[in-house]
Each structure stands twice: as C-alpha cells, then as structure tokens.
Amino acid sequence: MATTNLQFLQNPFPRPTFSSKYLVMRAPKMVFKCGCSSSSSVGGDAFSLTSSSKCDVDYLGESTKGDLNINLKHLENFGLDGQATLEGPIEQVARLEAEEAGSLLRDLGIPSPSAARLSPRGIFCTRTLNLRSISAIGYDMDYTLIHYNVMAWEGRAYDYCMENLKSMGFPVEGLAFDPDLVIRGLVIDKEKGNLVKADRFGYVKRAMHGTKMLSTRAVSEMYGRELVDLRKESQWEFLNTLFSVSEAVAYMQMVDRLDDGVIPADLGPLDYKGLYKAVGKALFRAHVEGQLKSEIMSKPELFVEPDPELPLALLDQKEAGKKLLLITNSDYHYTDKMMQHSFNRFLPNDMGWRDLFDMVIVSARKPEFFQMSHPLYEVVTGEGLMRPCFKTRTGGLYSGGSAQMVENSLNIHGDEILYVGDHIYTDVSQSKVHLRWRTALICRELEEEYRALIHSRGPRATVVELINQKEVVGDLFNQLRLALQRRTEERPAQTLAATNMDDRELTESMQKLLIVMQRLDEKIAPLLEADGELFNKRWGFLSRAGLWDKSHLMRQIEKYADIYTSRVSNFLNYTPFMYFRSQEQTLAHDTYSHYCSEHNGSSTN
C-alpha cells in the first residue's frame, strides 16, 4: 500500500473530512497497541505507523519511528490527491489548517497546546526529543510519581535524624527544621562547613557558614581561586534532590554547634568533614531502621500530595503503545502502599496501579542499576516473598536486576527508552551516560520559581537598565582616562582636539562621570542583592546564579536532562506524540542582530 510520511511536530493523528478548498484534518479518539508496526490499522484504513525497521531520521536528527503515514489508497477511494487537496503556498495552508484544528480543539473542550508551554507547568526542552519514537518510559517513584509534602516528609526525617544525633551525644536542644535554609542544587563544602551556590562554571557566588550567610568579600577571599568540582567527592556534596533538604539543614545547624564549642569532647576531635559523616550516619539510621517509612505508610495522607491528573497521563502513554516501567529504590511494601494511595482512586474501570506498568522493579539499587548487573528476584506474593529469576515477563514484579536486563527483556535499547526521575545523578545522568537513554527531570520547585520570575520582571528590568547606563558612562570614562594617560605620558593624542584640550576640562568631566558611576553602583548593589528573594531570601532563584548566569544546578540539568518539568502530570497537556524541540541558545556574540538592525540589515565584507 502506497504511503507518504507526514513530519508533523505534534499530535499527528488526523482523520480527513472535507471543506470546499482544503482537506481538513479531524482528530478522532484512537487506541494504539503495544508493538505497532507500519502495517497496523490506525484510525481505520486512513493511516499506518512507521515501524522500527522502516524508520528514518528527520532534518533535526530525530527518529521517525512512530510517525503516522497517510495511506494514499484511502484518499484515492474518495477521489482525492494528497497534494492537490492542500494546494497553495504552504505557509498559508499551514496557518489555515492550524486555525481549523484549533477551533476543533475548542469544540472538544481541549486547551490549546501552546497554553501549556507558556505556564509554570510547561515541559521545557534542552535537547530535541520526539516522543513518538520512544517505545518505553521508565519512572522513578519518590518525588517523581509520588510527591511528598516537603515540610511533613523532610521534617520527620529531620526529627528522626536529630533523635539519633542526641542518642550519640550531640547537643540538639532548641533546634528546629527550617526548610527555607537550603534549596536544591546547592553544594556542601565538607572541609569548611559551608553551603555554597555556584554558577555553571563552578565559581561560588553565595555561601553560608553554618546558618550564617557570608559577605560577598568573604566569599571572594575564601573561594576566589577555587572552583566547585563535583568529581572531588571528598570535599563537595551536591544537593541533588528534595531528599537532601533534611540532611543539609541538620548539618548546617550542627556546624554552628561545633563552632560554638558545645559538642562534647568525648565524641572525639571533630572537624567539619567528620561532623558531616556523623549527621549522615544519623539520617541513614532513620531510613534503615524503618521507623520513618512505617510512620508514612500508616498515615500516607499526612505526607503524600496526590495528583489526580498523573494516572491519566500515564494511561494516555500506555494506550499510545508505550511500555511503562516503574524502577524505584524503595522496597516492595512501601512502593505498593504509596502507589495504591496515590493512583488507584483516580484510575477508571477498577484498574489498579499495577495495571499501568509492563514491568515494576523495586529495590533497584540505583545508580548501580544503570552501571552493573545485580541478581534479579521475582516478587511472587502480596507479602513480598521472592524467588530467584533469570528472565522477566510482561506485567512482572521484580527486585534488583539491572537496566541491561530490562533492555534485553523488552528488546528495546538506548534512545528508545525515556527515563523520568527527580535525582540529577541517580536517575538522570547515570541512565544517560551508561545507556544513552533519553531523560526527563522532575523538579517541583520550577512552578514556584516560574511565578517568582514573572513577579520579578519589573525589578530585574530596572537593574538591567541601570547596568546598561553604567556601561555607557563607564565606556566614556575609560576613553577619557586613556586620553589623559596618553597626554601624561607625552604620547600622541588620538585627535587634534584631544591634544589641544585643557587638562582641567578633561579632569572635571572624568570626576563627574566617576561620581555618576558610584551613585549608580549604590542603586544597583541592593537591587542585585534582592534579586531572587521572591523564591528564596538567602539563595535567590533555583536556576540562576546572579542576574544573567545559570546556576550549577541548571548546568547539570542542561547537560543530562533532555526535558525537564515540575511534575509528571504535565505530560497530560502535551500528548504521547509530542515533538519537543530545543530552543535557540544565545551566545555572547549574538549582538550581530543589533548591529544588523542599526545598519538597516547591511553586511560588511
């Protein structure tokens, strides 16, 4: 059967009806089944799917697997020609058809796709990703499919940590959990007892010793010649996830106690690095001994924030033919309890959470799950009884194993798999580095930051205007300073006027400009200090370090996450067929666009 491949950028599942001039693309409901091939019947006889064996790559280098093709035979039965029915300039045709499709979406009560992109719940793309070419989507659970109330979950983790520290002899009286003390993406300096925020290059921009913020001068003196290097694990500890909040708060508070000299001497000579180990040990005990998770399992409604849209987003993906995987480090009993609480009541037709997934792997031991092979066990009873297993099956529940076992079992490899998680290292970087899986990062704080950035537009624009004014004044001052320098050194001046000008006039102009710059600085400095306060008073915005530069966290996201968003349910507004296209990245020399506009678009040789 003759076919023609349509490279739509999103939602390519139309059914043809007819208008007087153009072929109008209508969108019926369709069910995609696992293992679809180009010969599968999709939307009746009108379309077929591009299979793995017949796929190509498009002009952006993305696989065309999963793209829809029009069956020309179907058009011929209606006496139509695929080209003739869409005649005219393609730009005009595209505009008219988009308007027609948009009207149809409004009739169906479906929001415009563009509305989701320009919102705090958008999905943001750093590397072009065609979801149609994705055969399997794997999900982490904690802080990915299950979102916890940070104050409740991390607050209780902090409480257990402090109880353990107290039993070890540490003075913890009077301390309380303060989640605003830290944000994700900061880095602990275990050698100095500091918490720092670095830019994308590793330069420290803000720092806190214990719970006290350091001045700009102190930061410069301490870190002026030192870069944050996450490969140096003996010194630096990156706060990858919201699970890091309780540990960081406890550690910074205990640094204060160490500095105050109130930690008993019988605990041994402690430095900041030894103190970090003690806090980590206390928190590890809280997790290993099971009290924390037992408390959460007994009253999940106090700790978990359910998202009714999330199960529906996964259901869309499953019905679109994606194989869904749950790969979590949590054990079976905890996973089952959390997933039942968060999913079952929102699923249709008496479905349970297990019905969504083609494979569930608990106690996965990430990041080692992506790096090496561990024994695989099948969970065979509701009580969690396990038996050794060497081969997985669809719908199975397993413990341990490895990512390679998953690939071999599904016969799906590398960039055909998208993995979604909240941990930069454990979930995102390791699955990409070792397996070349496509990756998505979940960062709930993005919603708050997005809103804070919107409300900060006015103050930020004011700062930019003041800095631009200072740059203009500064350039003029520097040219006058150079002219004065040349005159002083009895070198030829730049112009005859500069040669004949009185020194006094030159000096007075420089003095005025210097005063102007000083006054501008007095206005700029507090505005820069306050930038980002709407998100966090100490650390500013999550994704930024300073007014223009990106934070170290944002650099990690760009490097390892193909897409990032605030929650999994945001996929509901994008469809399982979305073509995510990365945006143009600005460069320092992109000023050429301003040059062209000022010179009426003319070019120079």
Describe this structure in words.
The protein is an alpha/beta fold and 605 residues long. The protein folds into 3 domains: 216 residues, Rossmann fold; 151 residues, no CATH class; 86 residues. The protein is 39% helix and 14% strand. The strands form 5 sheets. Strands 6-21-20-19-8-14-15-18-16-17 form a 10-stranded mixed beta sheet, with helices on both faces. A 5-stranded antiparallel beta sheet has the order 12-11-10-9-13. A 3-stranded antiparallel beta sheet has the order 1-5-4. The longest helix has 32 residues. The protein starts with a strand and ends in a 7-residue tail after the last helix. The N terminus is likely disordered. Belongs to the 5'(3')-deoxyribonucleotidase family. This is 5'-nucleotidase. It holds the Pfam family 5_nucleotid. One of its GO terms (molecular function) is metal ion binding.
- The CA-CA distance between the termini, in Å, is 54 Å
* Low-confidence residue ranges: 1-41
Number of domains: 3
Name the strands of the widest sheet in spatial order. 6-21-20-19-8-14-15-18-16-17
> What is the correct CATH architecture of the largest domain?
3-Layer(aba) Sandwich
Q: CATH class of the largest domain, please?
A: Alpha Beta
Q: Structural class per helix/strand content?
A: alpha/beta
Q: What is the number of helices?
A: 19
- Rg measurement, Å: 30 Å
Main sheet summary: 10 strands, mixed
Tell me the β content: 5-15%
